[in-house]
């Protein structure tokens, strides 16, 4: 049992004993989320605002807090002190250290996990790369936020379905087939991959400036794809295979996997159902030739379902995708990890689903995120400042290797560690702040071994591993009094709160909460490490400090895994 639950149960017991006749007093389950962490440790480890009881007890909060503290009898867990209507709790340090370490070390890599999601499915739509285009840094956030959320929900017992909603439909693919037929060869495309496809696409637009009839040829080839023409589909599917092969290298570096690659083209034969259903429910109206769903009562522009020429749009496909996903996976939640610029689009989609009578529309969530710039410069393909993600990751590994060779020239497997540190630095930077904030990627911050960075947290993990190797496995029974000091207690508190951080991160769709937690734990451990000798002649005290080191290592490793970063044992 975690300490907050324990305090909540004791507080419930104390309340019922002090006011046995009172009606409507909250139970432990209602008390627990109301417990607060004081801004200053001198004010206590936890605090409860007693004004929550004032109405039920018809008594001032100051008096309630005073009466509870005067009769508090659970000193073995925590002492209680009344301050301005708050009941502040100061944990029994010896017992707290003993119980926390027992829990963490007994559960090991499962510490913080849960069965809360058993029997429930979460669908996650993330990454959503475009066919025949190289994977650029603009896709980093959607990929890593989605990957982290998938791991978090897995850890909490949910069944997760990771979906890469490929951008694989539209006239541009007819243009690419046209360009290939005119200027490409099979060997050049096989050898050059996506880079060669990009060259052909650029050439098409250059040629079309002087030969506008090419646009008609491009549209004709896309019509062939739509109609299932054998040659057109063969070339189109080949382009998709080449793109997925190209992006697989990036996904492998990032440790990202998907359960489905059903993209826009997958829903080509599933949109008639949506259109027919909208008509049957009298939701589809015609405006200036286009078929729309009127959302004026929701103070939104209309959701366009069909263009004047009868062509479908993103909205049509997203409606079909949402219905298909619920029919197929019966999701408890469907998360769309897409940049904040698409906020209106998803509000429209979810509202249309609601108007169609689907009660699960409320379970569809747009997980928005901010933009990313590189060295202060906003990325734009047209300005030529696009940064390809594979190039960035390779550069990160090279820079990490240079630093490692300077700091640890004798380290074995330097290339492996450089990969873990370099990739980790990029991922940490992406997930270090609230997802809605814009990110400015700078090497001097990402690869800083001394600041709030991925390498710093990884190095702390490696430090813990090194100490544990030196300590060995033959440890006597520990003396928890060795952990009564402020530094050990601050670290233990952060470790004890880690399961709540995971739940909060899932509830708020915010991986940065875990990034912040493991960074705080790493910093707290290093303060403890510098203030107290871990291994000394006091065997029982050493055993306690080693146990705390092991707990720290395990929690950091779990936290890093949940945000998609590896934890090197040597650095």
Task: Characterise the protein shown here.
- The chain has helices at residues 3-18, 28-31, 51-57, 61-70, 93-107, 140-155, 171-183, 186-210, 213-227, 230-254, 271-280, 314-329, 343-355, 389-407, 414-430, 443-446, 454-471, 486-496, 498-508, 512-531, 539-562; strands at 46-49, 78-83, 86-91, 121-125, 159-163, 284-287, 290-293, 303-306, 333-337, 364-367, 372-374, 377-378, 439-441.
- The protein has 21 helices and 13 strands.
- The strands form four sheets. The protein has a four-stranded parallel β-sheet with strand order 5-4-9-10, sandwiched between helices.
- Residues 379-384 have low confidence and may be disordered.
- Among the domains are: 3-91, Arginyl tRNA synthetase N-terminal domain (Gyrase A, domain 2, 2-Layer Sandwich), CATH 3.30.1360.70; 409-562, Orthogonal Bundle (Isoleucyl-tRNA Synthetase, Domain 1).
- With 571 residues, it is of the alpha/beta class.
